[in-house]
Each structure stands twice: as C-alpha cells, then as structure tokens.
Amino acid sequence: MQTKLIHEVRAVKSKKELENIVKAQRIAERVLGDVLKELKDGVTEIEIANFIKKSFVKYGAPILSFPPIVAFGKNTANIHHEPGETKLKKPIRGGATVIMFDFGCTVNHYCSDMTRTYFWGEPNAKQKKIYLGVLKAMELAMNKVGLGEKRAKIIDETVRNFLGKNFGLKRPTLMAKQTEGFPHGLGHGVGTVIHEWPNFKPKSEDILPVGCVMTIEPGLYFKNFGGIRIEDMILITKNGYKNLTNVSKDVQSAILK
Question: ∠ CA 31-195-208 to the nearest 5 degrees?
Fold first, then answer.
C-alpha cells in the first residue's frame, strides 16, 4: 500500500516537472525532423540510430530516455528491435518499406517518449489499412480519455477490442509469449523513468490521476509484414486530456517519397 501511494504521488506532475517533459519532447521532435532529412536508399538502421544520439547531444540533451529504436522493413514487427545493419531500400514488388522510430530524451531527469511510423515509398492497400487502423485505435483511446474515463483497463480494452475485431486477431488480449497482433499494453506513465505507474493493460486496476503524463501507443505487428506503432504523450486533465506531442501522424504525412 505504501509503495502504491508513492507511485501515485510521483505520477502527478507539478508545473515545473511538466515543463521539463514538454521541453524534452520538443527536442525529440526537432531530432525527428532532422532524421527524416537523413533518410536515403542504402542508409542502415545503426547509422540512423547513431545520428539520433549525436543530434540529441547537439541540442543539449545527451541523456536519452532509452536506446533509440530504428527499424526498417520486417524488423518493425519486433517491438523492441535493436538497430542493426539492415539497409533502407524500396521493395522490388511494390508497396513501401515500413520505417519505425521510437525515441526520447531527458531534461533535468524527466523523459519524453514518441513513436512514429513512416512509409519509404507509396504504401499498398494493406499497409494503408493497418496504419489507418492503428491511427483509429489511438483516436478511440483519446476520445475515451476525453470523455473523462479514468479506468486504465477500460481504455486499453476499447483499443484491444477494436483491433481484434477489425484485424482478425486470434488473441486480442495481452498474453505471455504473444508476438503478433497487439502484444503490448496501450501505454504507460512517464516521468523520471520511462515506464512509470499507471499502466494501460487488460488486467490493470489503475485509475489515472489528474496531472499524470501517459503514452498512448497502439500497434499492430505481423511477422511477414512488419509493424505499425504510433505513440503520443498526453497529460490527464480533470475533464479530459492535453496532447503533448506535436508531430503530424495522418497517413499522408507518413508517406516519404
């Protein structure tokens, strides 16, 4: 009980704490803009990951929230992919190569967290459908929070049910050893560590306190396809939420030609 109380107190951010998180996010957004200009055929995941690290140093935020995730193509199906020697290139048979970035930095020990997925080339119908499905799932979660829902389990369930119904997932609930479909929680608290209480999960009993910062990060992953994840950070307010992420995520913005 005492530990939970500490977590609850820690979750509610002061004005200064929130300023640090937002500043970290704005730096991450600048880095993302620079990264998109660095993309070209033949560049490797590890080269882009190193560029991300150097960019944060350049902007005065050398301590990252976690090692940056940079994934190309089928590697995007691995939710915790470590950047390697995979090169960026457009598919021979049409469609686009999926690119996923997940990174953040710290300002005065407070973290930011953001995921964006892009298409290197013109996405095919399946790629667009999955992207739009993940985007719709995020909107459903945001709408639920916007209406004042504070039960983490209900918000997670709303997304899980939608993705399960619309994408024929065999296991729409979060289960051990699940790798495909939607195998992770919808989001988590953010503060001085990247994963704080509370958590969006199917069995979560957490109630979101006003003043906490949460990620909303639905995703879909398929072994022979890749993965799509989109992640924003939001501040939970008395009557809804405030989105702290300022990067476009509509499907047209995700297409890089």
Answer: 110
Please list, in sequence order, all residues whose beta carbon lies within 8 angstroms of the beta carbon of residue 139, skipping any fewer than 6 positions away: none
DSSP class of residue 138 equals H
> In this predicted model, what pLDDT tens digit does every residue of 201-247 receive, in sequence order?
999 999 999 999 999 999 999 988 999 999 999 999 999 999 999 99
Tokens representing residue 247 in the block = 């990067």
* pTM of the shown model: 0.94
Give the up-direction half-sphere exposure of residue 71: CA atoms within 13 A in the CB hemisphere: 25
- Going by C-alpha positions, the residue among 5, 1, 11, 2 that lies closest to residue 196 is 11
Q: Kindly give, in sequence order, each residue whose CB lies less than 8 Å from that of residue 14, ignoring residues fewer than 6 positions away.
A: none
β-bridge mates for residue 47, sequence order: none
Asked whether the beta carbons of 213 and 190 are under 8 A apart, the reply is yes
Residue 179 to residue 175: CA distance in whole angstroms: 9
Domain 2-256 sits in CATH at 3.90.230.10
Looking only at the bridges linking them, the beta strands covering 114-120 and 255-256 are: parallel
Domain locations in the chain as residue ranges: 2-256
The 3-state secondary structure of 167-222 reads CCCCCCCCCCCCCCECCCCCEEECCCCCCEEEEECCCCCCECCCCCEEEECCEEEE
Contact in structure between 87 and 44 (CB atoms under 8 Å): yes
